[in-house]
Design a protein that fits this description.
Number of strands: 0
Helix content: over 70%
Shape: elongated
Number of domains: 2
Structural class: mainly alpha
Length: 153
């Protein structure tokens, strides 16, 4: 045991002659290590760029998306929104059809998924249309009713 140093663990001895000496300012050993590490880093970067190019080319060459032309999560969210902000009975049916379409898509039956997705989209639009019609027609009918009562007097 060397004075001022703790005992080495489990019988491993530290010998001062095996310790690396601090580098001298005019030594080129550090420069060669730096240039080697820079070459290694540039090689890794080139390999990563080649891999990225291959990945992009494979993605571009992949099969086109399914004919459903719809994001299934967005369709389900629209159906849920049509329950809250639209005619709720049509919105519930739209949500059921959206879930059916998503399940068919996951099962790989894209034609059925497109069919159920189209029905869900139509019901979402119908739900919002009915609700907007009610919002617009209700005050109009009240005005017409008050006008008819005023004319009857």
């Amino acid at each position: 045991m060397v004075a001022g140093h703790p005992a080495p663990p489990l019988g491993l001895a530290w010998r001062p002659e095996s310790a690396p000496s601090p580098p001298k300012p005019n030594q080129t050993r550090g420069r060669s290590r730096n240039s080697q590490s820079l070459k290694a880093c540039s090689q890794v970067m080139e390999d990563e760029e080649k891999a990225a190019e291959r990945l992009v080319s494979h993605v571009e060459a992949a099969a086109p998306p399914s004919p459903a032309r719809c994001c299934w999560l967005r369709l389900r969210c629209l159906a849920a929104a049509s329950i809250i902000c639209g005619c709720s009975c049509l919105g519930v049916m739209a949500l059921v059809f959206a879930i059916k379409a998503e399940e068919r898509h996951k099962a790989g039956r894209s034609e059925e998924a497109a069919h159920w997705g189209a029905r869900a989209r139509r019901l979402v639009l119908a739900s919002f249309t009915v609700w907007l019609a009610v919002l617009i027609l209700a005050p109009l009918l009240l005005w017409l009713l008050s006008y008819a009562i005023a004319q009857a007097e």
